[in-house]
Amino acid sequence: MRVLGTAPRTSHLQTLLYLAAYLVLWQFLDALSLHLTSAPGFRPWFPPAALDVLMLFVVGWRWWPLIPVAASLHAGYDLLAHPSSDASNAFALGLVVHGFAGLMYGLTVRFLLERVRILVPMRSMRDVLWFSGSLVIAAPILVGLVSVGAMVLIDHLSISGFFSRGLVEQYSRFVVGDATAIIAIVPAVLALRGWGRLRLPDEQRPDSSRAEIIALLLATIVLVVGGYAVADFTQTPLIDLSFVAIAWLALRYGIRGAVLGVVVAEITASLIAGLRPTSPDVLMQDQTFVGAAAFMALLIGSLTTERGELLAKIAQRAYVDDLTGLPNRERLVEWVDARADDLVTLVILDVDEMRLLNEGVGRVAADRTLQDIAIRLRVGLPTSCFVARVSADEFAVAMIDDRSPHAIMAELRLFFDAPFDVDGTRIFVSVSLGAVRARRVSSADELLRKADVAMHRAKLAPSRAVVYTEELQAGSMPSLVGELHRAVEERELVLFFQPIFRYDRTTSAWRLAGAEALLRWMHPERGIVSPVDFIDLLERLAICERVGWNVVETSLLQADRWRREIPDFRIWVNLFARQALDRECAMRIADLVQRTGVSADSLVIEISERIVASDEGDVVKLAHALRNAGIHTAIDDFGTGGSSLGRVRDVPVEILKIDRAFVARSEVDTKAKAVASTVVRLAAELGMIVVAEGVENAMQLQVMLETGCEYAQGYALGHPMPAGLFESTLIRIPVMDAGA
């Protein structure tokens, strides 16, 4: 498809051939037009005007000076053969009129090329309206007015004489003849040049198209002939009836049908009218019908073509991925369902760390990488394999292959051995592959679900490739998503509390200072599910906010109960990332504190170091707002999120919980002890309380105490436990001997 704002793609030789053909054909059409005008008969168009416009479209609007050259060839021959003042005036008049016509048509074509940018061949209503309004109405009228003005200037015509009925009709026919020829011939020829691009989509094309087209064209001819036959008796042209067949062609076959019907009707009318006398009134009516029929047919045809292309685009978007051009998930489902009785192998490839790729090279470059992946798979795999893009960073390959799924995945991994070029930088992309093989599957969705389960398990496997088995289903991510939603509704997520102790140097004992609220999943079939198996997934789901705010409220109510026994008891609550980055987080926490009637001093909000390290300003604002409300804040898991004490200094938190990684082996590894001691000392210099997490034994507890860390939690001090057990074992006996 070529946009008419660009230069015509013709070689110099082609241009010369076009121009030579234009000059020769112009003389023939002009002579034919003069013959039809001089003899009694029908003159529905002035073909040289259409030829002028076609020449400008094909070889470029800058060739407009060739139009007066073509028009002056015949007039110049007459001037040389019969020199006279009238012949000289006629020659001068022809140069002026056709010179202005060439300039006007050239400027109009340039306007359509460079401003409106219509398409060739025309296929939209917008193109037809711009073409008709500019080249069929405005330009011929201006050319006609200039020709009259030129005739007045050379005294060939007086102004008063122009307004006589005969001359008005004559120049009206002149304008209508140009307009009729342009709208009847130019779209048809341009359509013939791009005939293949005007085909309706297969699903929109009638089954018996060829036979129906022939029948409708014959009907057009019959209606035109019949209209003139009736006109001989009634003096009323009835060729208007032929528009029924033309309109039907346009409705059924778009622009193709429209130009076929118009050309056949006008050629038939011209042949008949040229052989029989026609009155001026009938001549004008015929000209009006020819132009109006062509215009309406093109409008109807453009609407039909636009509708067909729109439906084709909708169908394509429904089944084709816009970015890569690969089939999408819906088309993959159709392919698999159509081969339900075959042994189908389905592999899902997930691009690892797509989020990091987007952040590292930019979203545009990352999209180009996805396109390159699609090209490698489509070109490298046999045509019998079905390649699709099923989600943002997932591709699927389906095939009927006797090889083992492991062998197929090994072959697919070879496509990622070579690096991808991203704006001059070579990057390597890794993928996780999940495969499933089945015969007579109940549905393609079931097969896709199993391959997805295998792919997610592959992300945790060293080989990054897993074949689905029934054992994988239990605990799989797709299964857990549905179960987590059910667990929230059924209140299966409950709170356990792990004690946090503070060392009392006056009594040399560890005193209960508070507890951290921890989620546990009381599964009806599997019992207590470890947080490791569901917390990360829960945090990716929108329901985590609902769970998180329920945890805050329940913890506050529990703290209120326990502060009656231990006045300085504090409850420690972790926030999900969605909560911490919510602009209304501080306000919601303050509202919960006020609603429950608990002292703000009893709450410690823990924010993961990973959130602190990745956020630019919202966490700082949150910490300030919580401090102003009297609520304590802590950075959790320090040492795992890529942050530093410099970054921690910028966040106004009061407590630093150092991760178990600083505590592990500190009792036997002097380097580990030195690192822990340094962190504790630097945090103390920043005025922060330090809590050691993951203290597993009494020796580690002693080491942490020696480093200056007076707050600790871990199995050495107490396991997470339900609220009732916590109350019966710790609230009543809140002191633990340092040597225990």
Features:
single chain, 740 residues, alpha/beta, Arp2/3 complex 21 kDa subunit ARPC3, Alpha-Beta Plaits, 8-stranded mixed β-barrel, 5-stranded mixed beta sheet, 58% helix, elongated
Mind explaining what this structure looks like?
The strands form four sheets. This protein has an eight-stranded mixed barrel with strand order 10-11-13-14-15-16-17-18, surrounded by five helices. A five-stranded mixed beta sheet has the order 4-5-3-8-9, sandwiched between helices. The longest helix is centred in the middle third of the chain and has 40 residues, at about 280-320. The protein has about 750 residues and is α/β, with parallel strands linked by helices. Helix content is about 60%, strand content about 15%. The chain contains 28 helices and 20 strands. Among the domains are: about 1-195, Arp2/3 complex 21 kDa subunit ARPC3 (Orthogonal Bundle), CATH 1.10.1760; about 200-320, no CATH class; about 330-475, Alpha-Beta Plaits. It is elongated.
SSE arrangement:
Elements: E1 2-3, H1 12-38, H2 47-59, H3 66-81, H4 85-116, E2 119-120, H5 125-153, H6 159-162, H7 165-193, H8 209-234, H9 242-274, H10 280-319, H11 329-337, E3 343-351, H12 354-361, H13 363-380, E4 386-391, E5 394-399, H14 405-414, E6 420-422, E7 425-427, E8 431-439, H15 444-458, E9 465-467, H16 470-473, H17 477-489, E10 493-504, E11 509-523, E12 527-529, H18 535-540, H19 543-562, E13 570-574, H20 577-580, H21 585-596, E14 603-608, H22 609-614, H23 618-628, E15 632-638, H24 645-650, E16 655-658, H25 660-663, H26 670-685, E17 689-692, H27 698-707, E18 711-712, E19 721-722, H28 723-731, E20 735-737
Parallel strand pairs: 8-9, 11-13, 13-14, 14-15, 15-16, 16-17, 17-18
Antiparallel strand pairs: 1-2, 3-5, 3-8, 4-5, 6-7, 10-11, 10-18, 10-19, 11-12, 11-20
Helix pairs in contact: 1-2, 1-3, 2-4, 2-7, 3-4, 4-5, 5-7, 5-10, 7-9, 7-10, 8-9, 9-10, 12-13, 19-21, 21-23, 26-27
